[in-house]
């Protein structure tokens, strides 16, 4: 089987697996963070787990860029910067701001490594080898412009939420449920909202099934987790604002 045929089969299967994961996570939240629980085998520090999970996304995408057969263009360089702008932070900066003592099951870290490796392959290999290439004119295409705009908005929301949450934890130990500033006044998990926007913008900017698969996976993973977070907050805090939504202000 040639690599392009394998790529198409893998991409199709990736959408199917995302749908299955979505259903599973609606009923069984991934066992890390506030939803950590026993029975998932040995654990590592959350810092080590996050670093191990996220590093492949950055490093493998860079590898596919470096070994790609398509010509390097301004558009391909912009895609590289967009991707690395998220994952360099997520892999090599964010883990070192996590609270010490938190643990993550090795199985969760392993699943994260698998996901990020496959995802980096699908997106990197498509953009830099299997696509027809993106010339400089693509940077003026309405699909790219709109996608970049959504990506940037999501990036700002995600970083703002991470900083607000980290500051609240350091100063008073507050968790998502008790933060009453910025976008946290409207949704329980603005960091997840930001990440969904980031990869939805990516899908639009790349106008590719590979990019769409990433957006679908992000939604399949984070929508159920936001739902679980909001339910946990309502169960543990009687004064949790009833108007505060899980993920989308004023809606859900």
Task: Map the helices and strands.
Layout: H1 3-27, E1 43-45, H2 46-66, H3 74-92, E2 103-105, H4 106-130, H5 142-172, H6 190-206, H7 209-236
Antiparallel strand pairs: 1-2
Helix pairs in contact: 1-7, 2-3, 2-4, 4-7, 5-6, 6-7
Write structural notes for this entry.
This protein has 252 residues and is an all-alpha fold. It folds into two domains: 31-135, no CATH class; 141-252, no CATH class. The chain has helices spanning 3-27, 46-66, 74-92, 106-130, 142-172, 190-206, 209-236, and strands at residues 43-45, 103-105.
Structural features:
mainly alpha; 2 domains; two-stranded antiparallel sheet; single chain
Give the overall average pLDDT: 92
Major sheet characteristics: 2 strands, antiparallel
Number of domains: 2
Name the structural class.
mainly alpha
How many E-type strands? 2
Give the terminus-to-terminus CA distance: 45 Å
Report the oligomer. single chain
The gist of it:
The protein is mainly alpha-helical and 252 residues long. 66% of the residues lie in helices and 2% in strands. It folds into two domains: 31-135, no CATH class; 141-252, no CATH class.
């Amino acid at each position: 089987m040639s690599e392009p045929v394998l790529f198409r089969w893998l991409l199709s299967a990736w959408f199917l697996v995302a749908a299955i994961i979505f259903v599973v996570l609606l009923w069984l939240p991934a066992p890390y963070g506030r939803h950590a629980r026993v029975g998932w085998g040995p654990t590592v520090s959350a810092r080590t787990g996050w670093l191990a999970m996220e590093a492949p996304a950055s490093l493998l995408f860079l590898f596919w860029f470096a070994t790609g057969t398509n010509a390097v263009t301004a558009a391909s360089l912009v895609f590289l910067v967009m991707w690395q702008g998220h994952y360099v932070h997520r892999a090599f900066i964010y883990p070192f701001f996590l609270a010490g003592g938190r643990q993550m099951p090795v199985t969760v870290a392993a699943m994260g490594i698998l996901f990020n490796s496959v995802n980096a392959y699908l997106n990197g290999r498509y953009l830099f080898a299997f696509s027809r290439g993106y010339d400089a004119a693509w940077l003026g295409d309405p699909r790219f412009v709109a996608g970049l705009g959504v990506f940037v908005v999501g990036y700002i929301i995600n970083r703002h939420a991470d900083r607000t949450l980290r500051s609240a934890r350091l100063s008073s130990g507050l968790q998502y449920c008790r933060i009453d500033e910025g976008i946290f006044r409207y949704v329980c998990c603005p960091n997840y909202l930001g990440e969904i926007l980031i990869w939805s913008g990516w899908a639009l900017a790349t106008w590719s099934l590979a990019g769409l698969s990433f957006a679908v996976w992000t939604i399949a993973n984070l929508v159920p987790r936001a739902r679980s977070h909001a339910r946990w907050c309502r169960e543990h805090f009687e004064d949790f604002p009833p108007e505060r939504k899980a993920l989308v202000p004023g809606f859900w």
